[in-house]
Amino acid sequence: MKADVKIVELDVREDLRMKKEPFDKIMGAVKEVNDGESFILHAPFNPVPLHAILRRKGFERIVEKIESKHWKVTYTKKVAVLK
Questions:
Q1: For the DUF2249 domain, which residue ranges apply (predicted)?
Q2: Predicted confidence (pLDDT) at residue 1 exceeds the cutoff of 50
């Protein structure tokens, strides 16, 4: 991985614990991610509905269960191929 590749990281566990909807915060972070870069999300559960939304935006994912209420999902934006 190149050293100049940006990684955006966001932890929404506290937001959800406080009953705050983090979707807008997540989508704001996603907008900062360019092709080949990654967005790391920390959540208290596997955010399955978000996987489909970000897949449509060109992201691949790696899901890790860190502990019972801590999931880490690394979304990487695919590099667009020009035809």
A1: 9-77
A2: no
Q: Which two tokens stand for residue 4?
A: 């100049």
* Mean pLDDT on 61-71: 97
Region for residue 45 given its phi and psi (left: phi exceeds 0; alpha: psi -120 to 50; beta: otherwise):
beta
Contact between 61 and 41 under an 8 Å Cβ cutoff? The reply is: no
In whole angstroms, give the CA distance from residue 15 to residue 35.
28
State how far the Cα of 54 lies from the Cα of 75, in Å rounded to an integer: 8
> What's the whole-model pTM score?
0.89
Side-chain-side CA neighbours of 51 within 13 Å: the count stands at 12
Q: State the average pLDDT over residues 40-66.
A: 97
**Coil, strand or helix: which one is 6?**
coil
> Whose CA is closest to 40, among 18, 17, 16, 13?
13
